[in-house]
Amino acid sequence: MKRRISRLKINYFYVVSLRILQVITPFITAPYIARKFGPEGIGQNSYIYSIAYYFVIFSLLGNQKYGNRECAKVKDNTRKLSNVFWGIYSVQLTFTFIFTLFYILICFSFSEEIQIIGYIYIIYVLSAGFDISWFYYGLEKFQFIFIRGVIIKLLGVVSIFLFIRKNEDLWIYALIISLSALVSNALLWITLRKTLFSFVQSLEHINFIDYLKHLKSSSVLFIPVVAVSIYKIMDKIMLGGMAGMSQTGYYENAEKIINILLGILTSLSTVLLPKISYLVGQKEYGDIKSLFIKSINYTVFLGVGMTFGIIAISSNFIRLFFGAEFLDSIPILKTLAPTLITIGLGDVIVNQYLIPRDENKLFIISVSVGACLNLILNILLIPRFFALGAAYATLFTEIVVLGIQYSVIKHTYPLNQIFVNTWRIIISSFLMFYVVKSIKIMYGSIVLTLIVQVVLGVFLYFLIYTLLYLVPSRQS
Q1: How many CA atoms lie within 13 A of 384 on its CB side?
Q2: Which of 155, 177, 233, 271 has the highest CB neighbour count under 10 A?
Q3: Cα(471)–Cα(476) distance, rounded to whole angstroms?
Q4: Rounded to an integer, what distance in angstroms lies between the CA atom of residue 305 and that of residue 137?
């Protein structure tokens, strides 16, 4: 058990370090990009990228979770692992080819203003054919994922500052994003032959029945991927069509901040999915329950703190990082902030309970309800409230989805077992929020003010929580 925990900590370090890098790089590039392209340019890129992203997820089917889980189950048997990998990948390659062709056809329908960007994102759609990150996650090879991520992220940042000089360089920005995805996924193949038998060696054990089996199983997990994408990606496509590219730009930058923080918040679940899948196979339910409760408490602690913190600093943050052109992003950011809590908790339930136990039906029901609800709310709210309406729709949808997902596990994990420290977290968050929000502009400098708000907020949150932790809970 100690060896497992040590391995878990190392894997968590790699994933969190990569997520922190993913946090730092947008903080470096986002202000520069926002000022070069403005809301209109940001909106155009977001609109096309969102469409291209749909074709990527169709190419991958449900492999990110299905491939991860299946490889984790047989990671100790090279022959079985090779057969599983090549069987799953053959399905992925087929669909990448089909949906790349479909995307190329869609590009002809784009307006002349954005068509060149659409053509560039063909590279991004093609990159899905090289994406086998699910294999490395299943084998818990997080070190290689980390090294690859560092290299690509740093090259991407350098490229942005080197090659993007003016508003007309939006196509270069799209090219950097697309090539980064392609190179990043291509690098995954470097060490593959050291772990697997070749396709030719595995060919005699792969047949059409296996192909159909993987197609069916990955398709089941593909349904929630599409459903989730409706209220993660479709809102920007609908905004572009119903409210204009500038509104899409305001929403994109607000959501970008939330996604950056979610990257850190959901790191633990990313690490634990293959681990818990393995423990389920070994029937070690005591270890599973312990990990689940710790994950919930970790997510609530960080999620609630992040939510109150980002609401408190949102005005100064948007002004400093994106400029005066993006002031309309401030209320959107405040509205989306609580989704840090709802999405974070939902991620724990899905990755540490539903998927490891093959509870795919319940997962599908929850996100399908969310997709339908979000689509209806977007249609009703976007015409009236524009980007803020999309934010309202997303927040309400995430609350409903979390409620459905928790109803599945409430008998196994009652509230009084998994939310023991919540009262401490809420008190700490309120006090931290009040102090941070009350800080006025210092010496006329938003930079100095924001630094003081962030540093003081983090310090107070941890200090108050630590002091309150000395007060025993009712359960103890």
Answers
A1: 8
A2: 271
A3: 10
A4: 28
Residues 272/352, Cβ–Cβ less than 8 Å = yes
Q: Count Cβ atoms below 10 Å from residue 404 Cβ, excluding itself.
A: 18
DSSP string for 48-82: HHHHHHHHHHHHHTTHHHHHHHHHHHTTT-HHHHH
CA dihedral of residues 282, 286, 289, 294 (deg, nearest 10): -110
d(C-alpha 165, C-alpha 70), whole Å = 46
Cα atoms found within 13 Å of the Cα of residue 153, Cβ hemisphere only: 19
pLDDT in tens, 103-153: 999 999 998 889 999 999 999 999 999 999 999 888 878 788 888 888 999
Q: Who wins on pLDDT, 61 or 310?
A: 310
CB 176 within 8 A of CB 152: no
Cα angle, residue 371 at apex, residues 370 and 375 outer, rounded to 5°: 115
The CA-based angle 404-409-413, given to 5 degrees, is 135
Cα 47 to Cα 53: distance, rounded to the nearest angstrom: 10
DSSP secondary structure letter of residue 128: G
Give Cβ neighbours of residue 42 (< 8 Å, ≥ 6 apart): 33, 34, 248, 249, 252, 253
Angle between helices 2-60 and 234-242 (to 10 degrees): 40
Question: How many residues would you count in the chain?
Answer: 476
Closest CA to 272 of 260, 261, 280: 280
Torsion over CA: 410, 413, 418, 420 (sign): positive
Task: Write out pLDDT tens, residues 13-54.
Answer: 777 677 777 767 877 898 899 999 999 999 999 999 999 998
Distances (CA, A) of 46 to 250, 287, 351, 361: 10, 42, 28, 32
Label residue 250 by pLDDT band (50, 70, 90): very high
| Dist. CA 342–CA 346, nearest whole Å | 6
Q: Is the pLDDT higher at 352 or at 45?
A: 45
At 364 the pLDDT is: 82
